[in-house]
Amino acid sequence: MLMGGHDTPDMVDFLGQFGFDSILIEGEHGPVDFGHISDLSRGLRTVGLDFGGQGGPQPAGRHLSHIRSGSAGHHGAACGIEDARAVVDASKYGPIGHRGAAGSRQGYGVEDYVNKANDETLVAVLFEDIVAINNLEEIVPVDHIDVFYVAPGDLAQSMILTGQTPHPDVKAAVDRGIKTIVNAGKVAGMLVNDSTVDDYQGKGVR
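The structure corresponding to this sequence follows.
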């Protein structure tokens, strides 16, 4: 994830040597704006990496205009079923959604780009609020979402436990969310570090 202070094409070149599958351009908490995305996405392509953008439904189309077919895709927060459907609607061309059909520089020379982009763009939703965790059973059946990602920091804040991700109540909410996603046969995502990766993989996080 590239955040403020580390959001340059030079950093992309540096990270390219380590074998990552994709890089998320984090536009919520840092100074990355839309003017940076073209050069960042070009830099990613030169080192064989895919690009992902973060935000709600409104910026989805603008982020995705810089994403090549066959890439990572768009991340958006969801608290309920309508939020999840809105992320899909903004991320996919018709007949699935209503992503702006004016074209994309990433579509130059790509045959049948619209359908190829629909097939190959990854869509992930982030669950950052306890309301979302409580609504998960109705959200996970939404079609065309590839990853359901539990975000513990904002989740803790929504539970009036800001900065307390190790709190038992937060950990219980995270585990409940992951279990709901995995039991529905969907792909669960989670923020991990060296000390937690084995535990969460054991719970089905991919």
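Residues 55-202 form a domain with the TIM Barrel fold (CATH 3.20.20.60).
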